[in-house]
Amino acid sequence: MSDSTATSLIRRMVEGDAEALELFYNRYAGLANGLALRILRNPSDAEDVVQEVFVQVWRQASRFDPNRGSPEAWLSTLARTRALDRLRRRTSRREEPSDASPGVTATPPNVEILAIRKALESLSPNQRKALELAYYEGLTQSEISKRLGEPLGTIKTRIRSALIRLREALEPSPPLSRSRNETP
After folding, report:
1. Does residue 12 lie within any of the structural domains?
2. Distance between alpha carbon 18 and the CA centroid of its chain, in Å?
3. For the chain, which end, N or C, has fewer CB atoms within 10 Å of the first or last residue's CB respectively?
4. Residue ending a domain, choose from 44, 68, 94
5. How many CB atoms lie under 10 A from the CB of residue 42?
6. Does 104 map to a domain?
7. Which of 47, 65, 94 corresponds to the end of one domain?
């Protein structure tokens, strides 16, 4: 599904089209579940987060701004925020996470997911670790610095450099122009 198709589904949800929500859910539930499962490491909690996220998508579809990012990025942000909130609540209640390891998402990998994985693999192990702690565990840069025993400035530089490299790796390349002598 292209960004324009997903954006069209979001517009239809704003108008109250429940079928658009179903189509959007079928396409992106695996993405939201995989992210929540990676953060929470508990399938039941991850399923609850996915349900909460899609209720939020339905209620707040009008808040989606295609100028700020793709539908996938918007949904991922919602899922990450909900999962981290649940993780913090669980931690504050001193609950122990399940030993269940994250499973495979229901949605098969697509081109975007493969591109993201490849871009992440291109990062240094130190950059990748800092990003994972920030993104999946919701740690601040100061907390990452303490956990890794590294200076705060080093952590800030690693995260910034990693984000720049990811952005460069994931930006679509401009189409190649043909010379005048080439035939289409």
Report:
1. yes
2. 24
3. C
4. 94
5. 22
6. no
7. 94
Q: Do 8 and 89 belong together in one domain?
A: yes
d(CA 14, CA 39): 29
CATH number at residue 114: 1.10.10.10
pLDDT in tens, 38-89: 888 889 999 999 999 999 999 999 999 988 888 988 999 999 999 988 988 8
Measured CA distances, 106 to 32, 34, 149, 183 (Å):
10, 8, 37, 44
Which residue is listed with tokens 């990062």?
Answer: 123
DSSP annotation of 173 reads P
Residue 74: CATH number of its domain: 1.10.1740.10
Q: What contacts 71, CB < 8 A, 6 or more positions away? A: 3, 6, 7, 9, 10, 24, 28, 64
Does residue 101 sit within a domain? no
CB atoms within 10 A of CB 163: 14
Query: What pTM did the predictor assign?
Result: 0.60
**Are 62 and 14 contacting, i.e. CB atoms less than 8 angstroms apart?**
yes
pLDDT > 70? residue 107? no
In three-state form (DSSP H/G/I as H, E/B as E, the rest C), the secondary structure along 51-95 is HHHHHHHHHCHHHCCCCCCCHHHHHHHHHHHHHHHHHHHHHHCCC
